[in-house]
Amino acid sequence: MKLTLFQGILLGVFGIGALVGLFVFSTYTSKSGGAGAVGAVVIWGTLPQSAMNATLTAAAQADTSLRSVSYVQKDPATLPSDLAAAIATGNAPDLVLASQEELQSLAKFIAPIAPSTLSASAFQSTFVEEGGLFASPGGGYYGVPFLVDPLVLFSNRSILSSDGIAQPPATWEALVGLVPSVAVTTPARQITRGLIALGTYGNVHDARGILSALFLQTGVPISAYSAGGVLSGDLGVSTTGGVPPGQAVVTFYTQFADPSKVSYTWNASLPDSEQAFLSGDLALYLGYASEARFLRAANPNLDFAVTPLPQPATASAKSAYGLVYAFMIPRGAKNASGAYQAAALFTNSAEQAAGASATGLAPAVLSQLATAPADPVAEVAYAEALYSEGWLSPAPADTDSVFSDMIGNVISGRSTTLTALAVAERSLSSLLEQ
Prior knowledge:
single chain; alpha/beta; D-Maltodextrin-Binding Protein, domain 2; 2 domains; eleven-stranded mixed β-sheet; 16% strand
């Protein structure tokens, strides 16, 4: 088995400490020679069971040393508590596969990979930039990136073509301009067909990711490690001049739910945006690339296209929000050595291809993104994986609570935009410092 430079570094000698027992395995020279060296490895993860089973089957065919790797799907909401209980009773899994949205809740249960084992230069030259979110503030990395699920734009081709629109919008400004042409409302301002689900929170299927994308595209970092290793929330409330960037984001987002605006196309009384798109009552839908398979299966008659996430017209560089999934070794793992070996082997081209094909996500290894499969969804996902971004958030449910309150207070008139942003920023900071 031919190893890449990165894998040669990964398959090095582990020091004594949290990862005791890890040893040299860069001497693998063939698939048969490495067979059984990984041993039994149990992965707990948040990706679907069926997709990961297919991934592991294909991976074991490519490299027999992965034949004893198994997977158990876990609910993201209960994964931290499940992991804590498993560690306490001596039943921890060997690997945890989760996105950066769960990292803040999981970090205290994870044994970081030391810089001497995985250097920053090897990491940065091997993985997509968003993978850097798994860097540990004390040095090293919390995990080995595996796959990326970027936010994309789904469009109902039938609706757009019937309204004389040849291409889905590439910018947010162009998107706003389509509302009068596509949205259908009654004289009482009831919406019978919407352009896109934006403006509210509870019935916008991927609202957390959409708002994150808008903040990041506007240059709002939302959170970052401080010198002491503590994360602090920043929603772009302050500015040196002009409109604060956070205010611009929330004003843009909420306009779509304001009946007094020409951009009005959505409200809180409508169904979940994914269902509205499936039923043909929504022209555009913002969702993750992995959702394409569900949409096809749920409504085989729906004629939709997938294009990149819209960008600000004035942006000098592209940016999208993505979920980057990484393999992490929990404290108390019985087979930490095999777990690390398995994570490293999943950076191989065959394993990366197997994971991307089975899940509908994009590879996290840069070399595998050069050529996308002959599939229009994969083509978009692979391209976006290169410029996807993210942030180290509180637990998804907590982030939803903060964002939902912020948007709800603005569209209801209970708070001004700046007041709602300031409250949300304080809430995020408090959650991130826990």
